[in-house]
Amino acid sequence: MTWLEPIAAGLGVLCLFFLIRQSLWAWPVGIAMTSLYALIFFEVRLYSDFGLQLIFCALQAYGWWFWVAHRDKAEADSQAPVVWLGARRLWPWLATGAIGALALGLAMDRFTNADLPYWDALTTSFSLVAQFMLARKYLENWLVWIGVDVVAIGVYAYKGLLLTSGLYALFLLMCVWGFWQWRRDSATATEAAPAQ
User: Fold this and answer.
1) Spatial contact of 42 and 77, defined as CB atoms under 8 Å apart
2) CB–CB of 2/44 below 8 Å?
3) Are 149 and 177 in contact (CB under 8 A)?
4) What confidence tier does 172 reach under pLDDT thresholds 50, 70, 90?
5) Could you tell me which residues come within 8 angstroms of residue 25 by beta carbon, excluding any fewer than 6 positions away?
6) Contacts of 129 (CB under 8 A, 6+ apart)
């Protein structure tokens, strides 16, 4: 299955590029990417990541629907707006990620032969949080993804998935760009909005 990794990695870069640009093409590309990564992670016994990819397929479909449903129908090129959560509204998301990581890590450690069960669970749980935040266009999703990417780089390098580890290093840089781009776009939209 080693031939699948470069294809999945390429789709991952393309998907993230489309997300940063707020293009609807991100979602079908993301569905293809997560399907391939599900196969890859199952083969290397990263079961939390395998399950995560299956859930990501559903979240990709949700994101696609949300972005289409929440754009301005009167304007053909309109986008669903970027939403800033702020620190107070971000904490419940982070708490959910931490609780999910602990619970999943304990389950994987006790009931499976998973390698790195707690680190794998950490990236899995916070990836779910970040993906849902991304689908809802919460600006802070990029900050959560940055944290996930830092941990994932180490996990995948340890497992010998060097291309995927390198991909996550690229994702890390792209997430910094995504945060900057979305923040700039939301500030521009706010300035352009008529005073009420």
Assistant:
1) no
2) no
3) no
4) very high
5) 18
6) 93, 94, 96, 97, 100, 144
